[in-house]
Predict the structure.
Amino acid sequence: MPPKKCKPMDKVYVLSDFDGTITVEDAAVALLNEYCSVDWYKYVRLWERHDMSLRQSLKQMYEHIVVTKPQVEDFVQKNVRVRKGFPEFIDWCGKNHIPFTIVSEGLDVVIKATLAKYQVKTEVRTNRMLFNGNKVTIEFPETPPLCHHDDNEICGTCKSSHVKNLQDEGWTVVYIGDGKTDVRPGKMADIVFGRRALARTLTEQCHYFFPFENFVTIKERLGTIIGR
Ligand SMILES: [Mg+2]
Ligand SMILES: [Zn+2]
């Protein structure tokens, strides 16, 4: 199945979600379950009901985490695992001149500690954790001043803006994701690999995507599609 439009296969850019996509389990959820001082899921429900923007919801839940930076790094070291073939996929992208960037509504310290654990170097666009002892503040350095979504949503890190900016520059964008915040960018991207909530929604809305279990499958499929 070819990608949506006739896009050039010599200018391919891969964007990937982090939690539950690159990692086996959602690392941000695991951290919240371990260190959040309140029922954090109530903020997810407020967001799902459109009573709170994604940005407000993330800020509320992440700022109720009581933890120091070394504790987060230690937690990642002990608990976070990446999907099979992820480091090799990054190598393959590098050798084939395919830029790869993580776009995540998770947390920079968690992502950086995971990449260090697996000795992977790549671009990351995500939300920033600032520590004052065991108090956490969240900043959103990656989003333009405001998102421009029809439903007035305001993201933490605007994944779909990254898709759009790259497409405007002439890139064929591959998007890999698993969650609700991947639906908007997934519907815009040219080639999509999806699982879980992203796969369910794209199926319901008749958007074409490739299911995936790990990065071995993604590398094989993508290699075939783009001829590398
Ligand atoms: Mg995810
Ligand atoms: Zn946005």
The two ends are 16 Å apart (CA to CA).
